[in-house]
UniProtKB/TrEMBL annotation:
Belongs to the complex I LYR family. It comes from Ceratotherium simum simum (Southern white rhinoceros). PANTHER family: ELECTRON TRANSFER FLAVOPROTEIN REGULATORY FACTOR 1, GROWTH HORMONE-INDUCIBLE SOLUBLE PROTEIN-RELATED. Residues 10-63 form the Complex 1 LYR protein domain. InterPro entries: Complex1_LYR_dom (IPR008011), Complex1_LYR_ETFRF1_LYRM5 (IPR045296), ETFRF1 (IPR052000). This is LYR motif-containing protein 5. The lineage of its organism: Eukaryota, Metazoa, Chordata, Craniata, Vertebrata.
Amino acid sequence: MKMANSLRGEVLNLYKNLLYLGRDYPKGADYFKRRLKSVFLKNKDVKDPEKIKELIGRGEFVMKELEALYFLRKYRAMKQRYYSDNNKTN
């Protein structure tokens, strides 16, 4: 049972982290929240610890993808700001 409780904590942390990252989602935070909730609810009855670990791994991958998306978007905005200014002076 201890294993299940530690996995439960991991799942809850993953949910909270994804929810936090979803605030800046391009299609809107509400869209992201609804999708996130439906995916977690779809898997709520999974009991196999290995399957749960696999799903956690998939969620962590999604977190990394979101972070990369946001970083890229920020980078593009900065690049556009600086390079469009530089091009005007040349």
